[in-house]
Amino acid sequence: MIFYYVCDYINIALKTWLALQVVDGIYGAKRSKKQIFIGQVIAITLAALLQIINEIYMHLPFSNNLLLIIIIIGIIISVSCYKCNLYNALWVNLLTEVSLALVDFFILTCVYLIIDWLGGRRDILLFAGIWRGCYLLIYAILLLPVGCILKSWLIGKKQEILRHRNKALVLGILLLPCMVYFQKIYLQEMVNILFYQWCFFLLTFLLIVVIFFFNTIWQKIEEESKIQRMEITMLEENYQLLLENYNQKSIIMHDMKNHLRTISAMIKESRLEDCESYIGQIVGEIKKSENVVWTNHKILDLVLNMKFQEARKAKIKVRCKSDDMSDLSLSAGEICSLFANLLDNAIEASMKCPIQIERMINIVCQRHGSKLFVSVTNFMKKEMNSQTNLFLKTTKKEEELHGFGLRSVKRIIHEREGYMKIKILGEQFRIILYLNGFSN
User: Fold this and answer.
1) What is residue 388's predicted lDDT score, i.e. its pLDDT?
2) Residue 190: its pLDDT value, please?
3) Nearest CA-CA partner of 282 in 263, 264, 305, 302
4) Can you list the residues of the chain whose pLDDT is less than 70?
5) What is the pLDDT of residue 374?
6) Residue 401: what pLDDT?
7) What Cα–Cα distance (Å) separates residue 183 from each residue in 129, 136, 188, 190, 191?
8) Could you give the CA distance from residue 382 to residue 427 in angstroms, rounded to a whole number?
9) Tell me, what DSSP letter sits at residue 393?
10) Do residues 104 and 51 touch, judged by C-beta distance below 8 A?
11) What residues have CB less than 8 Å from 55, skipping those under 6 apart?
12) How far is CA 419 from CA 56, 209, 373, in A?
């Protein structure tokens, strides 16, 4: 029996560890490694001890109440050690623990039916003993690579997963009564009737997954449509800005004859100071509507000039260094979405900086063969340094109505087979993009 209890302890400990790895993969740590390790040890020890106590005094290999207590323990540790709130901790721990229990019951059903078909003792895995101990130990050992692989996969997919956390909670709630039902069957030693119930459950579960899948596709189509409308709106705004600049220049050129006559009259009357002041006013008006050639690409220069003017109005310094982008293969919509959204976020972050922090945006555009390298650097509040998702989450009210700019940037990077990297150094926030931007 000691061997069995040791195996049971290891099994429940690794199940709890796996649930915490899922939380870590999706939300990341907010404590030091030492503090997280202590938190994990506390959660694992409590869960395992409760399981052993339950088996010794209640003689129950499965317990709904115990599972709920373990979920609560996982929620507390998740909120304490990781960057997630109570709601996020709830759906992750609920879905993970219930899924692990269902997988356990399914394996037991398969073994039971196989042994029954072979004519052996069918309940060898249902009660405390060496056979069940071996099964729990093998199951626990398999959870180690599963946890490591799952955490690595979740880190790369966490943004997509977070968008579907409500569905995950619904799925966990739907699976909970199924787990209770199968547990009741096991405790009544009626496993031989489970074959058809499992078939029905798996078909129903598959149907739910298919419904969620198509709902996700529909949402993605809707988001793509919103992104396209945003890009069209942005192009229209840029076009209107171009017309406005053109009209301003046309007005200045139309009035130039009158300006020259006025200047000539001032010179004849020796009103040199008034003449100098008048010329300064004219030069200022010309500079307001001036479009600087930064990249030698008309659309890109137009977007940069538009955003740089917004930055200067907000008293934000701008520096731009660029290679010749005249043969850039990005479409007008891609250019507007990519650069306008990057600069909008940089301007927004810079405007929130206190007076003592320099408000400056530095953008670099370089060509490396067929690759386009873009770096946008700005300064931010010191307390935001730990928030590596500053650019990944909108700070506007009604978040569900915003954030499409980022999705548009990600979509372009994905379609252009590139990647995005974020670096934070002190008060400096930098976004680096690398993607296919030229035809050769």
Assistant:
1) 43
2) 54
3) 263
4) 1, 58-62, 120, 122-123, 126-127, 159, 183-198, 220, 223-259, 282-292, 356, 381-405, 440
5) 92
6) 33
7) 19, 17, 9, 10, 10
8) 6
9) S
10) no
11) 5, 8, 61, 128
12) 54, 30, 10
183/192 Cα distance (integer angstroms): 13
pLDDT at 361: 92
Structure tokens at 42: 């506390």
Identity of the amino acid at 72 = I
How far apart are alpha carbons 37 and 45 in whole angstroms?
Answer: 12
What's the Cα-to-Cα distance from 151 to each of 13, 28, 98, 328, 413, rounded to whole Å?
17, 10, 18, 38, 24
Task: Locate 85 and state its tokens.
Answer: 């709130």
Is-contact 405 344, C-beta < 8 A?
yes
Give 368's contacts (C-beta < 8 A, 6+ positions apart): none
**Cα dihedral sign, 6-7-12-17:** positive
pLDDT of residue 363: 93
pTM recorded for the entire structure: 0.55
> Which residues contact residue 237 at a Cβ distance below 8 angstroms, ignoring those fewer than 6 apart?
none
Which pLDDT belongs to residue 399? 39
Report how far residue 50's alpha carbon sits from residue 356's, in angstroms, rounded to the nearest whole number.
54
Q: In this predicted structure, what is the pLDDT of residue 103?
A: 86
- pLDDT confidence of residue 365: 92
Structure tokens at 352: 């929130």
Q: What is the Cα–Cα distance from 4 to 129, expressed in whole angstroms?
A: 6
Residue 99, SS3?
A: helix
Residue 165's H or E segment, with its range, is helix 165-187
CA distance 112 to 122: 5
Give the C-alpha distances (Å, rounded to integers) separating 292 from 211, 229, 281, 303, 336: 52, 28, 19, 11, 17
Per-residue pLDDT of 79-103, as tens digits, reads 999 888 898 899 899 989 888 888 8
* Residues 100 and 81 sit within 8 Å (Cβ to Cβ): no
Tell me, what amino acid is at 365?
C
pLDDT at 168: 83
> How does DSSP classify residue 369?
T
Number of Cα atoms under 13 Å in the Cβ half of residue 38: 7
